[in-house]
Structure formats: structure tokens, C-alpha cells
Amino acid sequence: MSLERKDEHDHRGWMQERDLSPIEQGYLMALIWLDKRFRIVDYLELLETMYYRVNLQMPKSHTEQYNLDNKFWYWYPLYSLGAFSTIAYIVAALTGAILGFYYAPSTADGMEETIAYDDVVFIMQDLNFGYFLRSLHRWSAQIMTAAVFLHMLRVYFTGAYKEPREVNWLLGIVLISLTMVFGYTGYLLPWSQLSYWAGQIGVEMALSIPFVGEWVAQLVFGGFSLDASTLQRMYILHVFILPFVVTALIALHIGIVWMQGIAEPH
Amino acid sequence: MSESPPERTDEERGVVVPMRVYKTVTVFSTLFAVFGVVGGFILIDVATNRATADLADVNPIVALLGVGLIVLSAAVYAFSTRFQAAEMGNANNNENEESNNG
User: Fold this and answer.
1) By the number of CB atoms within 10 A of the CB, which of A81, A240, B41, B71 ranks highest?
2) Chain A contacts of B21, Cβ < 8 Å?
3) Are the C-beta atoms of B83 and B17 separated by less than 8 Å?
4) How far apart are CA B73 and CA B70, in angstroms?
5) How many Cβ atoms from other residues are within 10 Å of residue B11's Cβ?
6) Residues of chain B neighbouring A17 (CB-CB closer than 8 A)
7) Is the same domain home to A16 and A89?
């Protein structure tokens, strides 16, 4: 592993033995000329060596030990879904923090519609990179929901929820539920027609819960019909309560995976 | 190199080169292709003002230059696939890779 110059290859020698067309020969000579000056390949080989040296330090996994890679390789991409949802969550957090600079959860009359709705229109139409920013936030939210669901399927079908990982499976169920609450509360924030009537459905679903329905509707939606306090509560849930709770639970979830190790397919 | 290396088979146009040269070809042709295609699209964007210009305002030279750069990069990349390291076989011809049930 050094950057010392390797022995020069006798390029003219071996090229004479092939019957190369002038274009092929010229192309190869040009690339070799470039290679001697920009030593990208040397640096890539260094990285390759480092990669294998680091890998040699790792304990053999179950699949390596019993040579099962040919049976299980098609599962491996699915093992990235947990990290994928975490990345989507981070992107949503960062873009959401910036979106928060331009949004107020107010149902009071704005210039055109309510202030909340006007703010979203402002972000989409007038703010530099606003459309991009909100799209990033929305897409990362969608991707997180999808990835979290597929992550759950992967864990189920590889049996990764089994002993001793039951607690993390339950924690994952809590997290997928909170992810959907995250999505729902965010869906209501633009206070558009879609938001409003989704909110109406939410209130009625809350009210349909036996015994405690009215209490839940009061607590979550601030009443039995949608008004300023509904939007206020959705906002606080979305930008204050859920971020702390979900971030802490994700940290715990990943921490437990770290301690227990990744469950490999058997 | 005492023994004579495998010559090219005519229909495949494959050329066997030393491993180090194969790496060179792979790395640099990929770089050419990536920068050429991206650069070509940038040129087309410049020529057409990001596809918003009227037909009369399009700069034909720059636009054709962009298209040409994309085509050239693709051609260079395709041309580079003929160079192989020893014992690689031809990527376009998988007779040496038999299928099995995983």
C-alpha cells in the first residue's frame, strides 16, 4: 500500500503482439498517457486494498461462514431499508426546519385564504427554491413511510423479529405508527381542502373510539369540529412533540440493533 | 510475455490487454462518458436557455455540439468495451456463464 511508482509496463512490446487497429492503438496510448499523469487508477487500487484489509478484520458472518451468499444475495438490498428510512427522516427534518421559517399555523384570514395556506402558496410560488424545498420535504416523507413499511416486511420475512429481538420489533411497530402520525399531522398543515377534510375524517375516527372517543378528539384535535386549535395542535405535534419522541425512539431502535447485531437469514 | 496471448476472435472484436491497462480503460472511459454526457446536456441547456428559448433563438452550433458530445461519449464508452483483461471472456456473450439454481 504505497504510492511508489510501479514498474513500467512494456506497452509497446505487448501491443506489437496484438493486431490492433490504429484507432485502438491510439486510444490505448492516449489513455496510458493520461494514466501516467492523472494516477486515478493507482488511488483506486489503494482504496481497494484498504477495503479488503478492513474487511479481513471483521468477524465472519453466518452467511460467509457457511457459504450461503449464493442463496441469500437477493435479500441483501432489503437490508438497506432501515438506513434508507433513517436518511429520509434526516432529510425531512432538515428541510422541515427550513420550511418552518416560512410557515405559521394560523387559520386567520390572510391575503387570499388563511395565513397557513397563503404561506404554503408563498413557499411554492415566490420563495427561491421553495418549490424544491417543499418537494424534498414531501418526497422524503413519502419515501420514509414506504421504506419503513418495506423494512417491516423484510424483518418479518427474514424472521429478524424472533428472540432475542422481540422488544425491537415492538418498538418498530410504535415507530411505524408514529411515522404515520407524522405524515398525517403534516398533511393537515397546508390547511387546504384535502387537509381540512382529512382532518374531519380524523375527528370522526377519534370520536368512533368506544368510551374515550370524545376525550381523544378533544385532546388531539382540540374539539369536535375543525378550527384554529386543531391546526395549532397538529403543528405542535408535527414540529415539537413528534420530532423529540421519534428521534429518541429511532436512536433507541438503532442502538438495540447495534448491541444485538444484525439478524441474518437462516 | 513468452507465450502468445489469445488473439482476438474476429466476430467479437475483443482485445485482450494487461489487467493494469484494462483498469485504465475502464476508469478513464467511464470518466469520459460521465463528463461528456453531462457536459453535452449542459451545452444543450445553454443553447436553448434550459429548453425555454423560441426556436429562432436557439444557438444551433452549441446545440449540435452538445448532441455531438453526448453521441461521442457514448461511442467512446461503447468502443472501450472491446478491451478485456485475460480470461474475462466477452461480456456480450455469456456462454461461459452457466445458470444454476442459485
Assistant:
1) A81
2) 9, 11, 28, 31-32
3) yes
4) 5
5) 8
6) 1, 4-5
7) no
Asked if A230 and A253 sit in the same domain, the reply is yes
Question: Which stretches within B1-102 are classed as H helix?
Answer: 19-47, 60-80
Q: Which uninterrupted H or E stretch holds B16?
A: strand B15-16
Provide, as residue numbers in chain A, all residues whose Cβ is less than 8 Å from the Cβ of B102.
70-71
Q: Is residue A1 part of a domain?
A: no
Does B34 map to a domain?
yes
Q: CA-CA distance, B102 to B99, in Å (whole number)?
A: 8
The pLDDT-based confidence of B95 (bands split at 50, 70, 90) is low
What is the interface pTM, i.e. ipTM, of the complex?
A: 0.75
Residue B3: is its pLDDT beyond 60?
Answer: no
Nearest to B102 among A32, A41, A70 (CB): A70
Which of A152-161, B12-21, B34-43 bottoms out in mean pLDDT, i.e. has the lowest? B12-21
At A75 the pLDDT is 83
Does residue B102 surpass a pLDDT of 90? no
Question: Of the ranges A34-38, A73-77, A244-248, which is most confident?
Answer: A244-248
Residue B96 lies in a domain: no
| Sign of the torsion formed by the C-alpha atoms of A83, A84, A85 and A88 | positive
pLDDT (tens digit per residue) in A215-236: 999 999 999 999 999 999 999 9
In a domain, B65, yes or no: yes
Contact pairs from chain A to chain B, CB under 8 Å: 55
Chain A residue numbers touching B80 (CB-CB < 8 A): 27
Q: Are A77 and A149 found together in one domain?
A: yes
**Domain extent for A35:** 11-58
CB contact A194 to B (< 8 Å): no
E-strand ranges in A11-127 read none
Q: Which tens digit of pLDDT belongs to each residue from A4-23?
A: 655 566 677 778 778 888 89
Residues 67-106 of A with CB under 8 A from B: 70-71
Contact at CB, A20 and B83, closer than 8 angstroms: no
